[in-house]
Amino acid sequence: MIERATDTIGRWLAVNILIAVLAAAAANAAFMALAGVWARPNLTAVGVIDQAAGVARVLDGAPDSLRAHLAAAASGPNFTVEWFASDAALPMPTLGATFHNGQDKVRTLLGRPDARVLAFEPGDPGLDGQPITFYALAIRMSDGSWTRFVATERSWGLSAHARLLLTSAFFIVSSLAVAAVAGRRLARPMQRFAAQAELFGRDVHAPAMTAEGPREFRVAASSFNTMQERIQRYVEGRTEILAAISHDLRAPLTRMRLRGEFIEDAEQQRKLFRDVDEMQAMVAEALAFFRDSSEAEGSTRFMLSELVHTVVDDFRDQGYAIADDIPDGVAYFGRPVALSRALANLVGNAVRYGDAVRVYVDVRDERLEVRVDDNGPGIPAEYREAVFRPFFRLERSRNRATGGVGLGLAAARSAARAHGGDVTLGDSPDGGLRAVLVLPLG
Ligand SMILES: Nc1ncnc2c1ncn2[C@@H]1O[C@H](COP(=O)(O)OP(=O)(O)O)[C@@H](O)[C@H]1O
Ligand SMILES: [Mg+2]
């Protein structure tokens, strides 16, 4: 596997945070550039100029000694007024300054059509050549002194508080957008990983995981695959050993049966034959069980209601009376052969131990239940787990003709659990046993 360092989650998060910060900064800059232009108030329109012209006329007529005081007194919330004695004293460029609209209006308002009026906007070059950040109006008095109006500095027409809120909003929005995309990209391989682990939990033969996503996930996926492979080999190994033992037991059992012919005591011979028969049955069932579980039947979508009907009808054909309540059109994704055998085991038990059997199919909140009720003797609560153990039978002393070798429930549960479900036992309302096959949907 080629490892690209850029693929690690850490790297990836860092890149995304950087993107978020850059996006926020870009949005901020774009807003300043665009909204700054839009929000720049037109000085002629806001009435400041009329006020300024009024103040300038008063200052023009006042003696020098009073002008500075009058200027200070005229300063208000809209602008500050300062008086400068000469061209040299005015802290603004007097030549080459950009002339903006409004001068004529000021001249008219002043009643001096030839008055020198300079208007500055934020961004105009100041005395030092640097752009200024305020609005300024400089009016030359009749005696050559200057009165300057400086409007409060404004940025896009917003207060510092509103600006802070807006900048924060840019950061929040861009962080959220990046986090949503980044989160999705990180979550996807995680979800796939979880789904695969879940699948393996249900089915040992599940296919290996494909390594995708950031490096950490690929490493985890490949470790998972190694583990899955080891478990598969382990399970297969055990199953093979057990199958081999069962298989090899058949020969000595056959020989025992033959030697039994020489036993003279008829009673002893009968007992020996019964034991040998039982062992042979166990071996045969065990072999069938191992064959089923190693046979990798593929999962397909099938009509579970049809499958249950088929199992029930098979027993009816053998003469058993079975009532049913099976809704039509219940579909399921799983291994139909394994489930059909599991169900046949449950119904087989029910008809063996009871004579009135009912089979229900119920779909409710994400799970599917097949209930098999009978009116037989039931199973005492303390044995309801034990009967799932292989070869565990309640009626050991009874005639073997009443049942199998004790693998039926074990096999049924194993098939159900391979689907993520289970088989449980309880009391049937008819007095006997209720066996429930639960399968998760979806
Ligand atoms: N419907 C039932 N009613 C009463 N006992 C039952 C029922 N089903 C199973 N059992 C008990 O559980 C034991 C295990 O059942 P199972 O695993 O199917 O083995 P088998 O049917 O081969 O005996 C049975 O021997 C029997 O004692
Ligand atoms: Mg059985």
TrEMBL record:
<dbReference type="InterPro" id="IPR005467">
    <property type="entry name" value="His_kinase_dom"/>
</dbReference>
<dbReference type="GO" id="GO:0000155">
    <property type="term" value="F:phosphorelay sensor kinase activity"/>
</dbReference>
<keyword id="KW-0547">Nucleotide-binding</keyword>
<dbReference type="GO" id="GO:0005524">
    <property type="term" value="F:ATP binding"/>
</dbReference>
<keyword id="KW-0997">Cell inner membrane</keyword>
<dbReference type="GO" id="GO:0005886">
    <property type="term" value="C:plasma membrane"/>
</dbReference>
<keyword id="KW-0902">Two-component regulatory system</keyword>
<keyword id="KW-0812">Transmembrane</keyword>
<feature type="domain" description="Histidine kinase">
    <location>
        <begin position="244"/>
        <end position="442"/>
    </location>
</feature>
<dbReference type="Pfam" id="PF00512">
    <property type="entry name" value="HisKA"/>
</dbReference>
<keyword id="KW-0808">Transferase</keyword>
<feature type="domain" description="HAMP">
    <location>
        <begin position="184"/>
        <end position="236"/>
    </location>
</feature>
<keyword id="KW-1003">Cell membrane</keyword>
<keyword id="KW-0472">Membrane</keyword>
<protein>
    <recommendedName>
        <fullName>histidine kinase</fullName>
        <ecNumber>2.7.13.3</ecNumber>
    </recommendedName>
</protein>
<dbReference type="InterPro" id="IPR050980">
    <property type="entry name" value="2C_sensor_his_kinase"/>
</dbReference>
<keyword id="KW-0597">Phosphoprotein</keyword>
<dbReference type="InterPro" id="IPR036890">
    <property type="entry name" value="HATPase_C_sf"/>
</dbReference>
<dbReference type="InterPro" id="IPR003660">
    <property type="entry name" value="HAMP_dom"/>
</dbReference>
<keyword id="KW-0418">Kinase</keyword>
<dbReference type="InterPro" id="IPR003594">
    <property type="entry name" value="HATPase_dom"/>
</dbReference>
<feature type="transmembrane region" description="Helical">
    <location>
        <begin position="12"/>
        <end position="38"/>
    </location>
</feature>
<dbReference type="Pfam" id="PF02518">
    <property type="entry name" value="HATPase_c"/>
</dbReference>
<keyword id="KW-1133">Transmembrane helix</keyword>
<dbReference type="InterPro" id="IPR004358">
    <property type="entry name" value="Sig_transdc_His_kin-like_C"/>
</dbReference>
<dbReference type="Pfam" id="PF00672">
    <property type="entry name" value="HAMP"/>
</dbReference>
<keyword id="KW-0067">ATP-binding</keyword>
<dbReference type="InterPro" id="IPR036097">
    <property type="entry name" value="HisK_dim/P_sf"/>
</dbReference>
<dbReference type="InterPro" id="IPR003661">
    <property type="entry name" value="HisK_dim/P_dom"/>
</dbReference>
